[in-house]
Amino acid sequence: MHKLDRYDLKILRILSEDGRITKSALAEAINLSVTPTWERVRKLEAAGLIKGYRAQIDWAALFRSQQVLVEITLARHTAQDMRRFEQRTSEAPEVGFCYATGGGVDYIAMIRARDVDHYQRFIDQLLLEDLGIERYFTYIVTKTIKADTSGAPAELDD
């Protein structure tokens, strides 16, 4: 991939906010014609910088659910133990996100459950599967203040 210039960075910022923007509207927004703009988008996709386009669904509006944040520490930190835990959590539909972290805990995850009982049954199942979880701390989400997943960094602002 070539070095990103201001046009590429504008494309990434705009697409992170509106993945459904038309080719012509995107070209106008970055002040280029349609063909070179679309060629840039294709190069950004081919380079893996654009991983996909998706809709943001308000699942809470459709289904009653409880979000739970969990700090997880593993008993051992071998590559095999971490890989086993990460594989299991990446496959679990209940896991909205799971981040490996430095500092006091190994992972922070967000679990979507029907209710607290469903969450506890999920955690109990993970413990029964002997994934090496030494301890976990549960935090019930009581209110969402901000949940912006577009992820465009401040550096891309004009």
What does this structure look like?
- This protein has 158 residues and is an alpha+beta fold.
- The protein has 2 domains: 7-55, Arc Repressor Mutant, subunit A (Orthogonal Bundle), CATH 1.10.10; 59-140, Lrp/AsnC effector binding domain/regulation of amino acid metabolism (RAM) domain (Alpha-Beta Plaits).
- 40% of the residues lie in helices and 19% in strands.
- It is built from 6 helices and 4 strands.
- A 4-stranded antiparallel β-sheet has the order 2-3-1-4, covered by helices on one side.
- Strand 2 (95-100) and strand 3 form a beta hairpin.
- Helix 1 (6-17) packs across helix 3 and helix 2 (23-30) crosses helix 3 (34-46).
CATH homologous superfamily of the largest domain, by name? Lrp/AsnC effector binding domain/regulation of amino acid metabolism (RAM) domain
Structural class, by secondary structure, is alpha+beta
**Total number of helices:** 6
> CATH fold name of the largest domain, please?
Alpha-Beta Plaits
Q: What is the C-alpha radius of gyration, as a whole number of Å?
A: 20 Å
* Distance linking N and C termini: 23 Å
Query: What share of residues is helical?
Result: 25-40%
CATH top level of the largest domain is: Alpha Beta
